[in-house]
Amino acid sequence: MASKTVIDPEGDVILICGETELQVSSKVLSLASPVFKALFSPKFAEGQPASSKASRIQLHDDDAEIVQFMCAILHHKCASVNGIGLERLERLAVVTDEYDEPSRLLWPAYVFDEAQFFNRLTKFMMLNLPNDGKSQTASKKYGIPEEFESHLPEGVLETIFFAEQDVKREMQTQIEQIISPIAAKRTTGDLILGSDDVLFSHCDCISISSLINGLSRQGLWPLTSAIHRMSISMLCKKLGACDFGLASRITKPKKCSHCPENVAGKVAKITEFALTKFEGLCLDCIKNPGKTPEQRLQCRVPHQQFRGLPRQLPVQEK
């Protein structure tokens, strides 16, 4: 027999997860997740027309315990849960990722003092959450309600947000450094010198048009727009998939810096930089910002550099 848990006594939806039934508010969950919003639509397979009785919706292959905890968080009932642990938080991350709301785990990770998960989650947020193409505050970008944000130390979301912006600016600068010399390349070609003689001249192994076409095919041109719109992980994936085109002369004894394989190598270094630059935030340093370098060695997430909140947050332009 199914057990019923009432998360919202006035809830208009009953979620069915295996042998567990959860009474929840469709409005609360719809505001939290576009997946839930679609799920509660009558046009969706599991959706049912609204009626005087709570609609019943079957969730397939979901972790009942974690779905219940997720719904409790979204209904601001998290205080009733005694501890969660890293293992349960990781299971929660899997479920919330399915419902497009992983950033909402930041608050419970902080409240339950899960340093490793907090570190992984802040890095995930920096790398994987895209912009909507509009000017955003950090809380709007990460979809965290004011009620949740008020429980976090001031500056946590801004630190993640500004770290992402710094990495993106550096990525753009490095990509432009690849493009600029190719765009300015002499029409007579570059001389490639060997030990005794000129081995190859008039290098035409990659042109500015083939470079931009390679970026365009992956949606990376215009560059500024793409970098603003996409997440860092998506930018890296698309950069790695770029095909800049091979020239007919690919058997030169000596390669120049413009050869496609060398351009690809430079691009690979850009993606490596982007994926490793920000290591996530240290919860111990956030809660105890006055630590010395020696004290940081005792942090639960080992690191040498200060990885809490910056001592002075940059002022966001309006």
**Overall average pLDDT:** 75
Structural class: alpha/beta
- Rough outline: globular
Terminal CA distance: 56 Å
Strand content: 5-15%
State the helicity in percent bands: 40-55%
Main beta sheet strand tally, sense and closure: 4 strands, mixed
Number of helices: 15
Oligomer: single chain
The helix/strand order is EEEHHEHHHHHHHEEHHHHHH
Low-confidence stretches: 43-52, 186-202, 247-253, 311-318
DSSP, total strands: 6
Domain BTB: 11-83
Protein name: BTB domain-containing protein
InterPro entries: BTB/POZ_dom, SKP1/BTB/POZ_sf
Pfam family, one: BTB
What's the short version?
With 318 residues, this protein is of the alpha/beta class. It is 47% helix and 7% strand. The relative contact order is 0.09.
Task: Please characterize this protein's 3D structure.
It comes from Imshaugia aleurites. InterPro entries: BTB/POZ_dom, SKP1/BTB/POZ_sf. This is BTB domain-containing protein. The protein has 318 residues and is an alpha/beta fold. Among the domains are: 100 residues, 2-Layer Sandwich (Potassium Channel Kv1.1, Chain A); 115 residues, no CATH class. Helices cover 47% and strands 7% of the residues. Helix 9 packs antiparallel against helix 11 and helix 9 runs antiparallel to helix 13. The radius of gyration is 25 Å and the shape is globular. The C terminus is likely disordered.
Itemize the secondary structure elements and their pairings:
Elements: E1 3-6, E2 13-17, E3 20-24, H1 26-32, H2 34-39, E4 55-58, H3 64-74, H4 85-98, H5 106-111, H6 115-128, H7 138-142, H8 146-149, H9 156-183, E5 192-193, E6 198-200, H10 208-217, H11 223-229, H12 232-241, H13 260-276, H14 283-287, H15 293-296
Parallel strand pairs: 1-3, 2-4
Antiparallel strand pairs: 2-3, 5-6
Helix pairs in contact: 3-4, 6-9, 9-11, 9-13, 12-13
